[in-house]
Amino acid sequence: MQLDHVTLVTPDLEGTCRFFRDIVGFEDGPRPPFRVDGHWLYANGRAVVHLVDATAPARMGGGSSALAAPRIDHVAFRVAPGEAWRALVERLAAHRVPYELADVPASAQVQLFVALAPGVAVEFVTSMPAGAAN
Q1: Rounded to an integer, what distance in angstroms lies between the CA atom of residue 58 and that of residue 29?
Q2: What confidence tens digit (pLDDT) does each residue in 62-102 have?
């Protein structure tokens, strides 16, 4: 089993698309003509991120007791160590995108988190000795 795609509903459709295109390196590609605006972003020829314009607040249930729909906390992408990781960090810096680094406890991995919008975070993870990315 593998991750097929993730769908992010965002109030900043174009800004989120630019992040995944210009920073992450995904390509904006073909998307079916859904009734709501969006983008499909491709990696290695496959649509892995589906962006949907947040035209209305998502709700579950009905009536006055409807609850806010659950949201994805974050989506994570594994990045090859070395040059691919350095290139990602350089693109973030070039575009002045703030991020936070964290070592994964008891492992040789590091995480990099970017907050795209309230409630939408993206994690990038790679293999690296603890403290090497700081």
Answers
A1: 25
A2: 554 444 454 566 788 989 999 999 999 999 999 999 999 98
